[in-house]
Design brief:
It is a single chain. The chain is an all-alpha fold. The chain has two domains: about 180 residues, no CATH class; about 50 residues, no CATH class. The chain is built from twelve helices and no strands. The longest helix is centred in the N-terminal third of the chain and has 31 residues.
């Protein structure tokens, strides 16, 4: 990571910086309130790095839930990352050892950034994407540690503060909506998820995998239409 790449990547990560410091702090605070030392917040954020999964982990650890339950719920929550990874195959191609870290660090917010930004012409694209992912991870670690330390010193009622993560993703989603003229994927995802929710119900998040299946199949079918307007017309090719 050189200064030019850092200077190019950092402005794009500022919204995530503000959000991750806040929701990371909430996670650390919740973990501390459950009786765990701040070192656990650091370890979880370095090795797990899954915001919603770590929020769930607080309850699982506090209630000493069976390993099978933890594995199933984690799969339900993070299954969407399989879809994220498939859509990033081209951007991650040729990244060498960094490719494994890019897969590991592909959170909702990092995915939203990588899907919506392009590297400046004077900066190596692979370094640019890696720097964005690494900065986001460092923000989350810092927020988690700060929250855990604060939670060990100050006792408050943490009920409801986990909504901070949902709020952050909504902000990024709105920004993506405003910066992109093609909203068909949004409608597809919203209608497919609503249909699965109504048919299957909300119990244990069982509607999520079918909803993601509808989204993947729908995007594959719509791909020619979504990419058609981005291709240069014959009369414009010189």
């Amino acid at each position: 990571m050189n200064r030019k790449t850092l200077a190019a990547a950092f402005p794009h990560t500022v919204p995530v910086l503000m959000g991750y410091l806040s929701i990371g702090l909430v996670f650390g605070w919740m973990l501390s309130a459950a009786g765990f030392a701040p070192t656990w917040a650091a370890i979880m954020s370095v090795t797990i790095y899954a915001g919603s999964g770590q929020y769930l982990g607080v309850d699982l650890l506090a209630n000493a839930s069976p390993l099978a339950d933890a594995a199933f719920l984690t799969l339900m929550i993070n299954f969407r990352h399989l879809v994220y990874g498939l859509s990033m195959l081209e951007k991650f191609q040729g990244m060498g050892w960094r490719k494994l870290y890019m897969i590991f660090s592909l959170t909702d917010e990092t995915y939203a950034l990588l899907a919506g930004v392009e590297a400046p012409s004077d900066v190596d694209a692979k370094d640019f994407y890696f720097t964005i992912a690494l900065l986001d991870h460092l923000y989350w670690i810092a927020g988690s540690i700060l929250g855990a330390v604060a939670g060990a010193l100050i006792t408050i009622n943490t009920e409801g503060i986990d909504f901070a993560m949902t709020a952050l993703f909504l902000v990024i989603a709105v920004e993506q909506w405003q910066s992109n003229e093609k909203h068909a994927p949004v409608y597809l995802g919203a209608l497919g998820t609503l249909a699965c929710l109504l048919v299957l119900g909300p119990d244990n998040g069982r509607f999520l995998i079918p909803a993601l299946g509808i989204l993947v199949v729908g995007l594959l079918l719509l791909r020619p239409l979504l990419e058609g307007n981005d291709r240069p017309k014959g009369g414009d090719e010189l």
